């Protein structure tokens, strides 16, 4: 269940980041409510995952995959550009997350 909780936390992180953009500075009610709920849900499910994972591994994977997911979804939803440099950066983040998991004691 640890990895399920972490996966759910990553989804919440992506919703939180995209929602923050949609709030327009927290001036729009429903995007603001969604963003705050996503933030709370992400922190809660991350805390459940951290019962079994080291914080250095869990937090890094959460923020790394959340960041990659946010960029991908930002490109799909907000038409943001994904450049070759960004692709290399995504690969480095994913590679780092995998290496952290493989070297976790």
UniProtKB/TrEMBL annotation:
Q: Which InterPro entries match?
A: EmrE-like, Small_drug/metabolite_transptr, Small_multidrug_res
- The lineage's top-level taxon is Bacteria
As for membrane topology, the entry says: Multi-pass membrane protein
What is the protein's major site of localization?
Answer: membrane
Where is the chain membrane-spanning? Answer: 33-50, 57-78, 84-104
Q: Which UniProt keywords apply?
A: Cell membrane, Membrane, Transmembrane, Transmembrane helix, Transport
Write down what this protein is called: Multidrug efflux SMR transporter
Q: Does the keyword NADP apply?
A: no
Protein's UniProt keywords contain Transmembrane helix? yes
Q: Where in the cell is it found?
A: Cell membrane
Matches recorded under Pfam families:
Multi_Drug_Res
Q: Output the PANTHER family linked to this UniProt entry.
A: GUANIDINIUM EXPORTER, SMR FAMILY PROTON-DEPENDENT DRUG EFFLUX TRANSPORTER SUGE
The UniProt similarity line reads: Belongs to the drug/metabolite transporter (DMT) superfamily. Small multidrug resistance (SMR) (TC 2.A.7.1) family.
């Amino acid at each position: 269940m640890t990895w399920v909780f972490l996966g759910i936390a990553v989804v919440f992180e992506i919703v939180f980041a995209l929602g923050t953009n949609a709030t327009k500075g927290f001036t729009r009610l429903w995007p603001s409510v969604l963003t705050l709920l996503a933030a709370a849900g992400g922190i809660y499910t991350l805390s459940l995952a951290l019962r079994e994972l080291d914080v250095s591994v869990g937090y890094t994977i959460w923020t790394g995959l959340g960041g990659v997911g946010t960029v991908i979804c930002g490109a799909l939803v907000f038409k943001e550009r994904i450049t070759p440099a960004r692709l290399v950066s995504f690969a480095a983040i994913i590679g780092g997350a995998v290496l952290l998991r493989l070297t976790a004691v």
